[in-house]
Amino acid sequence: MDEHLKPVYLEEKLEEIRNVGHHSYRSIALPTWCPGCGYFSMAEGLTFALNQLGIENKDAVVVSGIGCASRFPFFVSTYGFHTLHGRTLPIATGVKLANDELTVIAIGGDGDAFAIGGGHIPHAARRNVNITYLVFDNGIYGLTKGQTSPTSALGFKTPTSPYENEDEPLHPLMMLLSYRASWVGQAYAGHPHHLADMITQAIEHKGFSYLHILSPCVAFDKTNNTYANLDVLVRDLPENHDTSNLMEAMAQANPDENPALGVFFKQQRPTLIDAQNAISKRAQGMHK
Ligand SMILES: Cc1ncc(C[n+]2csc(CCOP(=O)(O)OP(=O)(O)O)c2C)c(N)n1
Ligand code: SF4
Ligand SMILES: [Mg+2]
C-alpha cells in the first residue's frame, strides 16, 4: 500500500510525537495549571533546554517545594522530588552532593522561595552549589488562592491585604547578586523562546545559577503582574552590559527601573564540590 494511503492511528501518532525531541521529557500527566498561566512556559522552556543540551531523562532531577509552580516534577519524565514548602534548596543540594553527575534543577514560586524558604537561598548561592534555581515570580500565593507574597507590590489588594499591601516588596535580583550567586538572570513567561534560551544558559553554567521568571497568575491577579502590564514594562539589558561587573548588574536590577531581561551577572569560581574535594586532598596530605 502507498505510504500516504496507510491509516494513521491517533494513539500511535501521539506515541511517536511523545518520544521525539523536547516532547520526550514530558510525562503523561497533563499540567493542572489554569489556562493562560505563565507556568506553561516552564514546561516548554525546561524540556527545550534539556533537549538542546542533550541531557538524558535519567540524568536530570527536578526538585520543587509547594505551590502551583512546584507542581512541575509531575509533568516531566525526569527524576523528581516534590518536597516540603520552602525546602527545595536543601534537598537539591543533597541530591547534587550525593551524585555530582546529575543535572539538578530546583523550581519554585516567589512564596516558596522568598517567604518560608528565604533562609536557604543565601547559603546555596554563596557556597556555589552547582545547581540551577528557577523561581517563577507571580507576586502572589497562587495555590492558596491569591494571598500577598514577599514580592507583591505596594498597594496590591488581595484577601490578606483587602485595603492594600503596605509591606515593601523584596527585590530578588538584588538579593541574589549580594548573596554571591555566580549566575543571575531574568526572563518573562510572555517571551517563551527567550526563556528557553535563558534556562539553557543557566543549566550550562557551572555553579549556582539563579533565573528569575516574571510569570502572570491569571486567576488571582487582574491588576499587577498581568501580561498586558508586563508586555509594556519589560526591556532587554543594554547590549554593552558587562556581565562580569557586579555593580553594573546591581544598577540594572534597580527596582526603580523597568524589569530587564537577560544575564545580569556571571562568574566562574570553585563550586561546593570543588572546594570539598580540594579540602579532602589537603586533609589526606596532612595525614600521610
Ligand atoms: C509549612 C506550610 N506552610 C504553608 C503552606 C500553605 N501554602 C501552600 S503553597 C503556599 C504559597 C504558594 O505561593 P508560591 O510559592 O508563590 O507559589 P505559586 O502557587 O504562586 O506558584 C502556601 C503558603 C504549606 N503548604 N506548608
Ligand atoms: S492559580 Fe495562578 S499561579 Fe496557580 S495555576 Fe492558576 S493562574 Fe497559575
Ligand atoms: Mg507565587
What is the class in the CATH system? Answer: Alpha Beta
Please indicate the count of domains. 1
This entry's quaternary arrangement is single chain
Mean pLDDT: 95
* Overall number of strands: 10
State the CATH superfamily name.
Thiamin diphosphate (ThDP)-binding fold, Pyr/PP domains
Report on this model:
The strands form 2 sheets. The chain has an 8-stranded mixed beta sheet, sandwiched between helices. It has helices spanning 10-18, 40-52, 88-98, 110-116, 121-126, 172-178, 192-204, 227-233, 246-253, 272-287; strands at 60-64, 79-82, 103-109, 132-137, 140-141, 147-148, 183-188, 209-214, 235-236, 260-266. α2 (40-52) packs across α7. The termini are far apart. The longest helix is centred in the C-terminal third of the chain and has 16 residues, at 272-287. The chain is built from 10 helices and 10 strands. It has 288 residues and is an alpha/beta fold. The chain is globular and about 70 Å long. It has a single domain (10-283), classed as Thiamin diphosphate (ThDP)-binding fold, Pyr/PP domains (Rossmann fold), CATH 3.40.50. The structure holds thiamine diphosphate (TPP), iron/sulfur cluster (SF4) and magnesium ion. Residues 67, 109-111, 138, 140-142, 149 line the site of magnesium ion.
